[in-house]
């Protein structure tokens, strides 16, 4: 005698059998999560999750088309360019920081202008600056001032 643990009955079996799409969405819309229990509730959540994943995949595909689109043409660029993040951001009200990962862009471009080493800061000048009581909004680089901070 064998036991098949994958046999499902009722609503759960019906929802799990449907592919993510309009038919699954309609079936889920006909029931309320508040009225479900046990395996039926679990099947409801799995169905919603599959619909969400499908919608996310379709959105990402659309974003990649938008990021590679050319004005008035259906041909797409081979890859996203420097303005792709701006296009997506403008359409969805997102920042470039939010749109860049969705388009597989490395970053928003601002990191190219920063340095992590701070090799351009004179340590002696910086020590004099930090010993002063008045804070400064920016850290001047070597050569910005001759000997002393301007305050």
Automatic annotation (TrEMBL):
Region feature Disordered, mapped onto this chain: 95-151
Top-level taxonomy: Bacteria, Bacillati, Actinomycetota, Actinomycetes, Pseudonocardiales
Comp. bias (Basic and acidic residues): 111-120
Biased composition (Polar residues): 128-141
Organism: Actinomycetospora chibensis
Protein name: Uncharacterized protein
């Amino acid at each position: 005698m064998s036991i098949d643990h994958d046999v499902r009955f009722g609503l759960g079996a019906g929802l799990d059998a449907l592919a993510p799409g309009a038919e699954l969405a309609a079936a889920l819309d006909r029931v309320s999560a508040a009225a479900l229990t046990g395996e039926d509730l679990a099947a409801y959540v799995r169905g919603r999750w599959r619909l969400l994943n499908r919608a996310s995949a379709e959105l990402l595909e659309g974003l990649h088309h938008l990021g590679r689109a050319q004005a008035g043409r259906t041909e797409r660029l081979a890859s996203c360019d420097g303005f792709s993040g701006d296009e997506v951001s403008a359409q969805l009200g997102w920042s470039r920081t939010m749109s860049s990962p969705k388009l597989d862009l490395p970053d928003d471009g601002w990191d190219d202008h920063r340095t992590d080493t701070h090799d351009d800061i004179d340590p002696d000048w910086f020590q004099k600056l930090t010993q002063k009581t008045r804070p400064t909004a920016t850290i001047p680089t070597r050569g910005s001032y001759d000997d002393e901070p301007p305050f």
